[in-house]
């Protein structure tokens, strides 16, 4: 380690870099008066891990290829006068984690490489950098799809987990009070990106101190402590295993007694029974994976075929598991997967046994690659699936007492029986709903990005209207036969919600329909489903219909009427639609086809033909 910090050294750094040992790992040149550029020959220090050149008078552009500094972890160039573009190569530095560029004169931030790594790679490929840029002159961000990035923040998905990482430990970007945060950005409405990137930087001293390789006292103390307790641990080992066995038996007995008191008595299966039925939980029996566990196909000894959900081991208490069992066991509806039993094993290993759905999930049926995907769902089947999902959610929200909120409605959680009837699955996220209009605010955000409502994604507000929003996304997926986010498609089509709104406002709704249907569908029903989907996707949850209202719409009941006014929300939520004209509110008179005016006030009453329609 070489530290020349807090001296009065001046001059340029080019000659100094040439004199350094290439094996150096830690270099601290902070708090001096060095001038000129950061030398390009810095790249020869391939073993460098920590570099601090903060609080000098360095200037010019940062012309260093950080790709070659593959071992660099910490970079601090704050409090200088560096300018130009923040180099794109920082996203290629394999181990770089902390970059402090506070109080310089940078004018551009290049996210091109970062965006491509996230869009084309995996979570392991995504850059994991904390980048601080407060106190610069950044007025432009370079990215191939900055507008899509904002849309993904509003309606993210499992794929865009990393695209949201500007607010996560993977990539943490703070611009502070830069010009880009204050300007209108050439008309782009980037409200949500700014919400996360333009926060004030309250933790400027995030720079981690490099460890002292010569200090070994802590290690010696640790070795002594471990040696001292080793004998004690060995003497307690037998007692621990005995206690563990007693605890497992006591826990199982407690669950059985509590369930009996609540008059909820699902069958209990043994671990060995389920292990045999799933061929030792073989990957060939695996049906799917989720955030709360893995599902396996199982054939029981009596010949019954069931689905076994092996829950991810957690610190969930017995009482919490019991509450979940009570919730699930009390839910019985033809459009909800039925619980057949449970299993409790050691190490808090729990399993739930459900009825088996012969045609697997809606996701596999629409855009899967297995043999069961050879048959394309026809429009009648798709419409029936829409109605089945709506009925299942209406039961959860309004018929159960107390009502339930699913919080993870997506195609992967919609299973299909032998007749392609929809059955909602995965109740690992179900929570009791409060009274009619009450909401719940949660800090943890479980579920799947891409199906979050804005109030849930940004504020953690939970209500039945979260499920209504997710239902709207699923409706569009059923019509289009594709995922809600697909970055392999052209940019204007990559976000299904934005593309649907574009086609809607252009009067080309039928262009959204899955081409595999080859035109064999009911146009009026397609328009009805898209109308309903967009009404579910309104920003204001109070303007979204209830699920029972949506059931009536799909059943085409003559008394069903759902009024929507979504033009303002569409303009805010879809930055890709920069060409949307200023629409004027037209009351309850439906669509105004004259001039460029368009009303989004719509009624789904089929008898009066007032359902929102645009030219096909």
How would you explain this protein's 3D organization?
With about 625 residues, the chain is α/β, with parallel strands linked by helices. The chain folds into three domains: about 1-195, Leucine-rich repeat, LRR (right-handed beta-alpha superhelix) (Alpha-Beta Horseshoe); about 245-355, Phosphorylase Kinase, domain 1 (2-Layer Sandwich), CATH 3.30.200; about 360-535, Transferase(Phosphotransferase) domain 1 (Transferase(Phosphotransferase), domain 1), CATH 1.10.510.10. Helix content is about 30%, strand content about 15%. It is built from 17 helices and 24 strands. The strands form six sheets. The chain has a seven-stranded parallel sheet, with no helix packed on it. Strands 2-4-6-8-10-12 form a six-stranded parallel sheet. β15 and β16 (about 305-310) form a beta hairpin. The protein is globular, with a radius of gyration of 29 Å. The model is unreliable at about 150-170, about 205-215 and about 560-615 (pLDDT under 50). It is found in: Membrane. Keywords: ATP-binding, Glycoprotein, Kinase, Leucine-rich repeat, Membrane, Nucleotide-binding, Repeat, Signal, Transferase, Transmembrane, Transmembrane helix. It comes from Marchantia polymorpha. Its main location: membrane. This is Protein kinase domain-containing protein.
